[in-house]
Amino acid sequence: MPNIDEEVSYFSKHFGFGLAYEFGPFAADDNWMAEHQNVNPRAEISKIAIMNAGGINLEIFEYTDNIHRSKTAPNNADIGCHHHTRANY
User: Fold this and answer.
1) What are the distances in angstroms from CA 58 to CA 11, 17, 54?
2) What is the model's pTM?
């Protein structure tokens, strides 16, 4: 997410999610990020927010811009795509 604080506010306001906790930053000097997050091994997460509502847990990640990455979302039919829809109200 480009701005995790906006996303936390959005899910709270529109879906009733409560913020359980936040943590970060997180980075690894080995290949942990590539092996477990499927991202560039040097990618850094500036913050992770954990939210919950009605037995549903939601993890929101905000990555830093320390590496080159695509700024456009993949097509829903692309391999590895994660579907996220958000309307601006």
Assistant:
1) 9, 9, 11
2) 0.74
Domain tally for the chain?
1
Q: Which two tokens stand for residue 13?
A: 């306001």
What would the 3-class secondary structure string for 2-62 be? CCHHHHHHHHHHHHCCEEEEEECCECCCCCHHHHHHCCCCCCCEEEEEEEEECCEEEEEEE
Instruction: Give the range of the structural domain holding residue 53, as residue numbers without chain letter.
Output: 4-63
pLDDT in tens, 44-68: 999 999 999 999 999 998 888 788 7
> Please, which residues have CB within 8 angstroms of residue 27's CB and are 6 or more apart in sequence?
33, 42, 43, 44, 45
Domain assignment of residue 57, yes or no: yes
